[in-house]
Design goal:
Strand content: under 5%
Distance between the termini: 55 Å
Order of helices and strands: HHHHHHHHHHHHH
Shape: globular
Radius of gyration: 20 Å
Number of helices: 13
Structural class: mainly alpha
Amino acid sequence: MLFELLRAARPYQWIKNLLLYAGFLFTLGAGRTLADFGRATAGVVIFCCLSASAYILNDLLDAEGDRRHPAKRNRPIASGRLSPVSALAAAIILGLLGLAAAWLMDPGFGLISSVYLALTLAYSTFLKRVVLLDVMVLALGYVVRAVAGAVIIHVPASFWLALCTMLLALFIGLCKRRAELSSNNQGAPMREVLAEYSLPLLDQMIGVVTSSALLAYSLYTYFTPTNTAAAPAWRFANHLLTFTIPFVVYGIYRYLYLVYRRNEGESPEALFLHDGPLRYNTALWALACAVARLAAGLTH
């Protein structure tokens, strides 16, 4: 039963919770310590518990529909390998443990963790059936993660970080809906809300959000200097993050290639875990960001 519970918790989707490291990554060189890294890591673990609880509850609510899906019918709850009672108990325990740990670590972090869990539950129960809001709420979940990562290490949550996260998450969400709708055109069962979308509409929205995300990230890297009050208003070292823009451009273009040419994108987590170029590019981007922030900090 433990193995089936772990499968229902969808550990492959916990990769999203790595966003909690964003606050730590983008403030390197500004007094961050190993203790901050430890707090961010604890935050990631807590959000893994909360997201696991949400995924199990989502599968409980969707069990009947999942049984009619050629792939989802193999999920532990839909297939009958995991009883609804055991699944519900596990979801409640994981949710309560995660919230308790979050509030004990920091009241602000506890509050935003509660917001995250409430948001995911609202999505699972009814928001995923509301056109446009379904994608926007998914994207907001990414923003909550990024903000939570800043709160847990006691740094201000940047407007630019929230904006870039929202736009990139919208990009991923819209690409996911496009891939799902494309699969439906090939005869796969359709998610209820997909009836409200069309491929031309999704293509237009993807085009808009792609341009917006690239522009927002470019502005973010330039207007997020690490200069102190005594430093000049502009210094080359303050804008080293601009050299990470090519990694973001390549990552977005690679993602579009996988969605439009290989008909992938229904599972964003699978793309990041299994596509080598996308995975290596993401790692290089993170490394470049860390080097840029540390270099900027050393010059002050």
